[in-house]
Amino acid sequence: MNCKIFLFFCFLFSFSVFSQVEQDTLTNDMDDTLEEIVISGTMKPVLRSESLVPVEVYTPTFFKKNPTANVFEALQIVNGVRPQVNCSVCNTGDIHINGLEGPYTFVLIDGMPIVSGLSTVYGLSGIPNSLIERVEVVKGPASSLYGSEAVGGLINIITKNPKNAPLFSADVFGTSWGEVNTDIGVSTKVGEKAHLLLGINYFNYSNPIDKNNDNFTDLTLQDRSSVFQKWNFTRKSNKLFSVAGRYFYEDRWGGEMNWNKNYRGGDEVYGESIYTSRYELMGTYELPVAEKMFFSFSYADHDQNSVYGNIPYMAKQKVGFGQLTWDKKLGNHDMLFGAAFRYTNYDDNTPATNDKDITTMPGIFAQDEISFNNKHSILLGARYDYNNNHGSIFTPRFAYRYKSEKGDVLRLNAGTGFRVVNLFTEDHAALSGARDVIVLEDLKPEKSYNLNLSYLKQWYFGSNVLQLEASTWYTYFTNAILPDYDTNPNQIIYDNLNGHAISQGISANIDLILGNGLKFIVGGTLMDVSTEEEGVKQRQMLTERFSGTWAVSYSIPSFNLDIDYTGNLYGPMRLPLVSEWDPRPEYSETYSIQNIQLTYKGFKNFQIYGGVKNLLNWTPSKNLPFLISRANDPFDKNVQFDPNGDALRTTDNPYGLVFDPSYVYAANQGIRTFLGVRYNF
Fold this sequence. Notes:
The protein is mainly beta. The chain is built from seven helices and 34 strands. It has one domain (22-680): TonB-dependent receptor, beta-barrel domain (Maltoporin, Chain A).
């Protein structure tokens, strides 16, 4: 397989027929990316190079280099961002930024906190790529503007403007594993004052595959539908009014190969079956006043009907959010004032909620961006929230930006973050498998203190363009809450850390355009994420020390052909073992997922694309005696326990194991081909 990749690179470099017009277009694309309007860093539109908070921007063109069925999978080629699979059976997932667990990442849709709490587990897979205008990534705490959950960073998914979207678009692809994904978009003008965008996504995977022969599905089967509708209204005052809604339904299951719905909830054949029904409403209204004032709102209703073997998990969550902002300029001061209110109503059938858990969190925030001249500017900000369960929470921030006459940008950011924990909604490892869940006390909010330094520079060498963006960070956590798999192999223990946690590292992104038509987007991250309790320092579970991503593109205009080679590389991670005799290694091996795609653009309005995913055919089960612990006895019917509840070593169970699918960190899906077609009118 490595030989094939080498030959592929030889093929790339053998071509040098690349028109100067195409080269100029790529150079302009890089400039446009740098000067694109972003909003996530300061909650107001600003040129990316002028933002005091570093914001990374990714467009649909970037994600099309490795076509995927949803945003969760698409982020696998973004440096410092890793989609983490948390369960071998149900394939729950979350998004890590700079090594921090998924609940530390705040996911927004059009600036609204739609994906949170219960929806963080399965909701990310239901956001179709066809709706995306761009994705903005902020690494580091952003709680002073966005409140709870924005501790490690945020991902803001900006949906398309109906005025600018194609009248009709379709994107359909399938894989050799039997996956089929369909995206359809329709945009139209309704009357004289409204524009409508309709997006429909359907994904289906109904082909059970067991390549590693453990009698469990390698990939969760899914039947998923999503309908999105967005309205933009034109008002006489040219004030903004936009409203959108989405409905999402998914039926997914994973388990033993002979499982069917007749076994759902029983203890005869093991399966994890999840029905998810969800609808969302969000909007923004610019008030008809002389000042620049916006009222934004969102509401999400999430209903999950699920069973994990014979353990039912029935959960409902309602999240309402409203926010009023006032954007005010006064001299060299660019100020923003805001008031927000968040309401969460959560109920499930677990011991976590004997009754409905209702949380209210009003908050106010302010920031002042002061420009001293063209080179120097600072930002001062603070937020105050009141949580009805935890009381007052205060989060300040500070930022400084220096821009040289040559366009070099240096940014220094310091801030704090906080997170109110929703245990069962965020970590379904607490439900999957045979481990008992132990919560030692009332969990207090986590707090973080962060310092981030970043540098951005461009070089031009004739027809070659190079852009470097590098950053280093240090984050200190108190009251950290991490699942403890080590103290007792039969338990997952949740408690506030009696000590502190640290995340620190350095990251760099390089964009390079060469005159021969090659374009490179390469990123790398080195980091150390650890905890220290009672003087003992330990590396955090499921966190790599180094990672890398790349996207290599080559265009051949004479053949109407684009070639994309994408991939990632991750270093070893510490994994949860079930017992001290567990024969699986404590650390994962270094691994890489690599993909190749060819796109033909010779037809009017049509594109045909195809390629190979996971070229190296890597899966987490490679070189392991087994991936899922006790897959042959998922209900632990033949496990013997001592008086303390620990599994005994017996002839049938020589390693003293119980059933556990949490020894995983990536999809157990091997090499596969794909073929698709896109149409835009």
